[in-house]
Amino acid sequence: MPSLTVALTGAAGYIASHVAVALFERGHSVVGFDNFSNSSPKSLERVAQIADTHMPFEQLDLADTDGIEAFLRAHQVDAVIHFAGLKAVGESTEQPLRYHENNVGGSLSLLRAMENAGVRHLVFSSSATVYHPDEASPLREDASLGPINPYGATKLMVEQIIGDVATYSDLRAINLRYFNPVGAHPSGLIGEDPVGTPNNLMPFIMQVAVGRREQLNIFGDDYDTPDGTPIRDYIHVMDLAEGHVAAVEALHPTTGPGVDNVEAINLGTGVGSSVKEVLAAAEQAVDHPIPHQVVERRAGDGTVSYADPGRAEALLGWRATRTMADACVDHWRWQERNPHGFAPDPATDE
Ligand code: UFG
């Protein structure tokens, strides 16, 4: 397998750090940049520790088109994986302009830098939130689109911009629509380190389990599901990471079949789990009960969302192999060994 040089935007973040490890494992070269607005340099040290190699890195903002162009040229980059972006749904409804500036504006800047530097392959971190909430699961990529918050709108807009550029230039791109990433690298050295109160279920559960928070609030148990709690498609972050490696390799003619213009591909397991099922799996992994209570529904939550992962298998030869139990064990190892994430001591915690 020929080796590619892959640049990661948002390189110190949760997903990117796991993708870096997976790329190194496959023998590729990895370079990256990040502005550390929602990540820690510590994550880069830990990736180097796991991979036993060092990722050439620069602190750069996506808005710095010239800086990114110079970076891409200097490292003779073959492909970019674009992770950098703001990702809190609730926050996006409070600061819509900031979300569009960062996520859409930042992506435009990156695409300009890539075009100037002659980098023709792009993998974009999109989200299952681009699907219309009324669409039934399993969700296929040709389901109707229609995000219901500014965060989702920015993901769809960036997909559309990439689509136009790829249709009318030599850019080749894959938009990866993530379902719900969970878990951590089995070393326990890297994992999700949310700033402030976690929005997402798994990090919240694990912070309760480790004693950082009192109890989990289950947002409603009166949904039309077997146990009354909503169903999602939780995918182990290492499966997700391997999906990115498969996407980058698929784009490049020396390592894959190539892609016509642009493809949208779900990264999910195809299996749905309810909130109560996730909680039960987490209790197994941590080996003690996790305090919880049922509260009101959270605005904007749908009942059921899980992927049809068939297209990923057909186009990338990739499918998820890890279970919810694996994800809980790995997430717990990370959380237990790093109760305050990458922060050095509790005093720096929120
Ligand atoms: N939940 C709780 N308590 C919590 C947190 C979550 O009960 O403290 C429940 C939610 O109500 C939901 C489920 O757990 O039923 C999953 O919620 P998450 O916030 O973890 O994930 P979502 O499915 O709401 O959102 C995720 C990503 C978004 C993305 C969306 C699209 O976080 O970025 O998937 O599929 F847009």
Question: Mind explaining what this structure looks like?
Answer:
It is a single chain. The chain is built from eleven helices and 14 strands. The relative contact order is 0.15. 39% of the residues lie in helices and 17% in strands. The chain is an alpha/beta fold and 350 residues long. The model has no long low-confidence stretch (mean pLDDT 96). α6 links the parallel β5 (121-127) and β6 (172-178). The radius of gyration is 19 Å and the shape is globular. The longest helix has 22 residues, at 96-117.
What's the short version?
The protein is an alpha/beta fold.
CATH topology term of the largest domain: Rossmann fold
The whole-angstrom Rg is 19 Å
Contiguous uncertain segments of 5+ residues = none
Class computed from helices, strands and strand pairing = alpha/beta
Give the helix proportion (percent range).
Answer: 25-40%
CATH superfamily of the largest domain: NAD(P)-binding Rossmann-like Domain
**What's the CATH architecture name of the largest domain?**
3-Layer(aba) Sandwich
SSE topology sketch:
Blueprint: E1 5-9, H1 14-25, E2 29-34, H2 42-51, E3 57-59, H3 65-74, E4 79-82, H4 89-94, H5 96-117, E5 121-127, H6 150-168, E6 172-178, E7 180-182, H7 201-209, E8 216-219, E9 231-232, E10 234-236, H8 237-251, E11 262-267, E12 273-274, H9 275-286, E13 292-295, E14 304-305, H10 310-316, H11 324-337
Parallel strand pairs: 1-2, 1-4, 2-3, 4-5, 5-6, 6-11, 7-10, 8-13, 9-14
Antiparallel strand pairs: 9-12
The site of uridine-5'-diphosphate-4-deoxy-4-fluoro-alpha-D-galactose has 21 residues, from helix 7 and strand 8.
